[in-house]
Give the backbone structure.
Amino acid sequence: MRSNLRRHASGSKIQQIRSSTENGGASLAASLQHHVDEHSALLHHSFQNSDGQPLYDDGRTWVRWPARFGYTAWKTLTSNPVNVLLVFVPIGIAFGATHGNPTVVFCLNFLAIIPLASLLSFATEEISVKLGQTLGGLMNATFGNAVELIVSIVALKDGEIRIVQASMLGSILSNILLVLGCCFLAGGIKHKEQKFNSTVASTMSSLMAVSTASLIIPATLYAAMGSSKPQDKKDNNILILSHGTSIILLILYAMYLVFQLKTHSHLFDEESEPEAGGENGTEGEQPKEHVLGPWAAGVALVIVTIAVAVCAEYLVDSIDSIVENAHISRTFIGLILLPIVGNAAEHVTAVVVATKNKMDLAIGVAIGSSMQIALLVTPFLVILGWIMGQPMSLQFEIFETVVFFLAVLVTNYLISDGKSNYLEGAMLLGMYIIIALAFYVYPDNPT
């Protein structure tokens, strides 16, 4: 009997302890939630006027404009996680202006250009929405690869022809192998098999094949001439061929824009129909909020472009020291490192949309950007070098041309069926790593 009474008393005490603990935990949680709600309300209230309106919509001009500027700046800076690297922009410029250690200057400006590329992409998207489909497409074509273009113009001005050629080739390879591979891999892990518009992909891949031929022909012509002609005569012939080929490529790109935006726009409009209907797992997505107006986006483009040009100037100036001290070839810097900087924002965007099963958009970012480099930026730089008196040509080394041909061949083969999976992504990434290793040991002046 005593044993039963003790057990009963002990059980009652345990139950009381449990009850008090649960009540105390519940009251503590309720208290914490009350404080959180109170602070959230105060924080939300601090950005509103007495009428409950946001400060950036306040009727008082002296309140509205500073609040709107702060709101716009905050939304712009938080548009991409890589924007935290913006702290390196003033630091990189300061080190470059004071002629600091070239290696440090290179690394700082290397990191500074990454968030600037992100802001450039963000401002381009904002201004494109306000200009409509046709002008928006032209804006994206112009500013989509602006970082590579600016860096290449600075290098071309300084006579760094190898850096320019390697940067152009590297941008194409990083997009069709690294970016597309990451898209296929990330999307394939989340989705067993993904589909995209094979007609659009086939059109892009055909144009990429034409651009490949434009590089193979000058390289083979240079090899075919051999030692039968003086070096000056051979170089002059290659420049004539390059100038004529560049003009033809620019005309082809202009015709492609007309094809895409006007005469056959229905083929490309099919890309957005599944997304609008919510078939790709995007039923719950809210329409994207547009932060910048046309004028604000235009001002942002100018400011960011100037900042990229300044950082690119210091970056290119420090390349010679990097080559000497780190024993890294100019070809590797231009072909692997610089494209990663210029395409960082596009890499993130393409992978994110691929995980959301928007493969048409991912294909457009990866292959479309490569096509812009091959048909627009590279021919433009050849013509610009012609104007500036620099011997910029489409004659790449035989090894580089073969690598480019194989990369385009593999990519065209993988996208021809309009389907993708993670194994195809792993193949593209594996090929990119092999190419990167090859160019790491590839000399600047092969004999």
Residues 1-10, 32-46, 271-285 have pLDDT under 50 and may be disordered. DSSP finds 17 helices and two strands in the chain.
